[in-house]
Amino acid sequence: MKYGSYINNGLEYKITNSQPPRDWFNMLWNPKYLASVGQNLNGFSLYQNEAGVLTNLFGKQDDRSAPRHIYLRDNETNDVWSVAPNTTGVELDDYSCTHGLGYTVLESKKNGIKVSFQIFVPRKEAGEIWSVKVFNESGRPRNISVFSVAKVILDGVNLTYGYNSAVDGYHDREKQRLFFRNRSVSVMTEKYRAFTYTDVPFDHFDISKDVFLGHNLSFEMPDCIVKGQLSDSDASTEYMVSALQHNLNLDEGSEQRINIVMGIVFDEAEADDFTALYANSTRIDAELETIKKQNIARLGLSELNTPDADFNNLFNVWMKHQLHLMADWARFYFKGYRDTLQDAAGVAIIDPDRALKMLEKALENQKSNGFCPRAFRVSSMEVAAADKHYSDSPSWISHATYSILRETGDLSMLDKVVSYSDNGEDTIWNHNLKALDFLWNDRGEHGLALIRHGDWNDLMDRVGAEGKGEGVWMSIALAKALKVVEEIAAWKGDTKIEAQCAERYHEIKANILKYGWDEDHFIYAYTDAGNKVGDNASEEGQVFINPQSWAVLAGIIDAEKYEDIMKKVEPMVDTPVGPVHNWPPFTKYNKDIGSITGIPQGNFTNGNVYCHAASFKIAADYAAGRNDKAFETFKRILPSEEKSEPYAQPNSYVGPSALRKDRHVSDDPWRTGTVAWNMLNCFDNLLGFKRTLKGVTINPQIPSFWNNVSYTRIFRGTTFNITIKRGEVQIMLVEGKEQKDNFIEVPEFGLNKKEISIDFQIGKTKTN
Question: Of the residues 15, 62, 504, 581, which has the fewest C-beta atoms closer than 10 A?
Answer without folding.
Answer: 62
